[in-house]
Write a structure and sequence with these properties.
The structure holds 2 protein chains of 2 kinds.
Chain A (H helix, E strand, L loop, with lengths): L9 E3 L5 H4 L12 E2 L2 E2 H8 L3 E5 H16 L5 E6 L6 H9 L3 E4 L2 H10 L6 E3 L6 H9 L3 E4 L2 H14 L3 E8 L13 E2 L4 H12 L2 E7 L9 H22 L5 E3 L9 E2 L6 H4 L3 H15 L7 E4 L3 H4 L3 E12 L5 E5 L12 E2 L1 E4 L8 E6 L8 E8 L7 E5 L5 H4 L10 E4 L5 E5 L4 H5 L22
Parallel strand pairs in A: 4-22, 5-6, 5-14, 6-7, 7-8, 8-9, 9-10, 9-11, 11-12, 12-14, 16-19
Antiparallel strand pairs in A: 2-3, 4-15, 13-17, 15-16, 15-21, 18-21, 19-20, 22-23
Chain B lengths: L2 H5 L1 E2 L4 E3 L6 E4 L1 H11 L4 H11 L4 H17 L4
Antiparallel strand pairs in B: 1-2, 2-3
Classes of the chains: A alpha/beta, B mainly alpha.
The complex binds pyridoxal-5'-phosphate.
Pyridoxal-5'-phosphate (PLP) binds next to helix 12 of chain A.
Chain lengths: 460, 79
Amino acid sequence: MKQTYQKPVINKHRSGLMNKFGWSPVYARKIRTEIDGVPIDRLVEQFGSPLFVYSERAARRKYRRMFNAFSTRYPNVVFGWSYKTNYLQAICALMHQEGALAEVVSAMEYDKARALGVPGERIIFNGPHKSLPVLERAVAEGATVNIDHLDEIVDLELVARKLGRPVTVGLRLNLDAGIYPQWSRFGFNLESGQALAAVKRLAFGKLLRLNGLHCHLGTFILDPQAYARQVQKMVAFGYEVEQAFGFAIEQLDVGGGLPSQIRLKGTYLPPDVAVPEVDEYAEAIAQALSHALRPGDHPRLIIESGRGIIDEAGWLISTIIGAKRLADGTRAYVADAGINLLFTSFWYKFNVELDRQVGGIDETSVIYGPLCMNIDVTDEGIPLPPLKRGHRLIFSPVGAYNNTQWLQFIEYRPNVVLVTETGEVELIREAEDLSDILRRERLPRRLALKPAGATPGEGS
Amino acid sequence: MSDQLSRLALSDEGFVFNPQTGDSFQVSETGIVVIRLLKEGRSDEEIAARLTDLYEVSLEEAQHDCADFRARLKQFELA
Ligand SMILES: Cc1ncc(COP(=O)(O)O)c(C=O)c1O
């Protein structure tokens, strides 16, 4: 009987590197045959490849785990779902079912939340660009508007005048919490006195009433104590404002930024070592609040975690479409999904799993996407056994920022499915076709090509 | 067959040693088969055919893999 075939592979031993790169046949080989009990094969058979797959169970579990971490430590907490992280309707709806407000940063996101049925009072409107019409609508509908810059104060006063009533607003701060780079381009700087000047300006106009402070330090914050420093400064500023202008701060929005379990490029430790647990963040924030707040004062704490909740609930299944050997000898694979779908590949070192056991010796390989673009690389230096067309690679975590920042570029965007808690698979975003690409285009009549069958030499 | 190849020391466990340069290599089972056949002076066609006799693999895939493996050997200056 013939033996099972494994492709011929030769790797040069490099002293000292062998263990670190795991060139053994089994070490570091990661297999995933199903997602929440649904076989990868079945998913692809039914919905094609590439395919985004979300786990409802994982998403809800993650949300509850994080919410419990905060709500067991502080009595007045609410989450705001960061739309930009993932604004697929099904994902947002799931978060709203869990109790989250909508955190939006543009007219488009605001419209999306309203279209989904989120009432204005349950929307937090952040971001540097809020055009006057949407600002007017948001204020009229009772949304929490966090002011980003001075011109917005003027806009809001205009809205207040138009509505004939004072408007309650929040103020976005940026501050030094020991995080580099400091996101100083959003909101008003605390330490320089800019924020206090903004409140003074706001009080002077008499049309706006400040009741909330907002601050988002950045994303993938690996130091829980940064939040403690942030909260301490926000509370102190709130009391200062109350003292000076009589505005009582009823909401403290500390933004998002909690990491997911993933290795960032350039970091060496595995994520379970490098990434602190959510409890450490909750503890740091709750401790800081209890130290800084007056006894009995419990302003509403808002958490806008995006990545930390949804990232690990998403996978991308892709299929190898070709294998090649580069001129320098490197093994390379072309997959049907690349940076067009995986925007986070610029800073994530994804967890890449195979859909089956593949025998043979691992080779350090590079994974390319389908784009005819040099930058379309989703992994470099990954040990993989010899793969061939049809083998599947499963990338994770991909739930955060990819389904919002994916590109309609060169390729169609694929199906997105949700595996329900009972194991059914629901299509939550249909794959695009040419009609999606052409729908908004207008071809001037004078540029129309001659109909097919025109005499040779005319048209193309 | 190249001089380099004839001097290579092979073990069944997939350890290949080049005494001239001191380099050592890890080679898969089928890789060892291919190197042995190359040492015997077999052509690519013969090697691919031999692989299909021994293993569950199509001639097309075996030919493709042989060419790829040869390129690798060249890269390591073994062929
Ligand atoms: C204002 C605001 N809130 C929340 C988030 C969500 O951040 P993350 O996904 O890092 O939790 C962002 C992301 O940029 C943001 O700008």
